[in-house]
Amino acid sequence: MAVSMQVVGVIAFYMVAALVMVFVNKVVLNTAPNLPTLLCSFQSIATVFLLNLTSFFTQHVQIPTWDHATARKLAPLMVVDAAGFLFNTLCLRDVEAAYYNIARGLVLPLTILVVSLHSFTRPSILVVGCASIVTFGFLLGTSFQEDLPAKAVPGPLALFYGFLSSLSIAVHAVIVKSSLPHVNGSATKLSYWSNLGTAILLGLTAFLSGEMRDFIRMMNDDEWDWATFAWGNLITGVFGFLISIAGILSVKITSPVTHMFSSASRSVLQIALGVKIFGDVLTRQRVTSAFTILFGTLLYTYVKSQEPSPQHIEPLKSNDVESQEKTSGDYIEKS
User: Fold this and answer.
1) What is the pLDDT of residues 57-87, one digit of tens each?
2) CA–CA separation, 293 vs 296, rounded Å?
3) Burial class (CB in 10 A: 0-12, 13-18, 19+), 156
4) What are phi and psi of 94, to 5 degrees?
């Protein structure tokens, strides 16, 4: 019974943290839609700070020492992490929260494709079938009805961000396996390097793109709701750190099947909350699309669990986003 309660506690912790990240980020992006890169950078800086702080109180959080050789070896992971985090955020900014998971619905098919190409292996017919179901769900969700209000229809660029986000997660599935040995298999060290690299890369991008200048200008504007931006960054920074911890606990305590079912439950909650909080448009077609994607993903998890030697794909333990979380295998739920 104690183990069961532990599993329930970790799953609940993980779900709450991921949902808070999505909805608070959406509120902040509504307030400052022109500062997505700066938002990502601030959140990564907060995670790095909290990892440093936590390391003083527990030996379970290991902070790496600066090493140029290690940084160079982890550079591909940092670039993919930063790109994935930014594309996640841009996708969330440009679509409704209830539509977010549909826009990133190609995570599973692209991950299977990239891993297969990298390992020179051919997925089974059942796995291809699961990916086909998910792809059909995505295509169904992107076939818009004519009677939808304009604000509920995401533009081509928003869907492109969703595709790039999904592709980043797929590439991440390959890179993370070769990156772990560089940090002696430590999930917290990899999370630290990943967030540090993301903070630096996106901070420079924000400066070069003019977001930093826009931020300073908006700070001097009495009409801008800077308090929402500041509190939103603080909350998402804390919960981004908590997602890192929750992701590590989830990998250790829950099985891939259990984790996938919890992700499915979170997706349903996210759709319901999006409709309730933001008044997102929910049509029968979108509901069918979301549940088709969920069904294909759950079926994939079941198929892999029945194989003699299961090879669980790292990013699919959350997304997520997705989460898509910035741990040793995820960043999806950071947005």
Assistant:
1) 888 788 888 888 999 999 999 999 999 999 9
2) 5
3) exposed
4) -100, -5
Question: pLDDT for 101-159, tens place per residue?
Answer: 888 888 889 988 988 898 888 988 999 999 999 999 999 888 866 677 777 788 889 99
Give the residue carrying structure tokens 């200008």: 217
Number of residues in the chain:
335
Query: What is the distance between the alpha carbons of residues 61 and 52, in angstroms, rounded to a whole number?
Result: 8
As given in the structure block, the two tokens for residue 270 are 């996210």
Yes or no: say if 315 and 300 are a contact pair by the CB < 8 Å rule: no
- Pair 43, 233: CB distance under 8 Å: yes
Tell which residue, 176, 169, 196, 203, has the closest CA to residue 323: 169
328: nearest Cα among 192, 138, 232, 132: 192
Closest C-alpha among 115, 57, 155, 27 to residue 329: 115
Q: Dihedral angle at the C-alpha atoms of 104, 307, 13, 201, nearest 10 degrees?
A: -50
The answer to whether the beta carbons of residues 196 and 48 sit under 8 Å apart is yes
Spatial CA neighbour of 192 closest among 56, 65, 80: 65
Is residue 224 within 8 Å of 35, Cβ to Cβ?
A: no
Closest listed residue to residue 321, CA positions, set 312, 330, 309: 330
Minimal CA–CA distance to 317: which of 307, 305, 308? 305
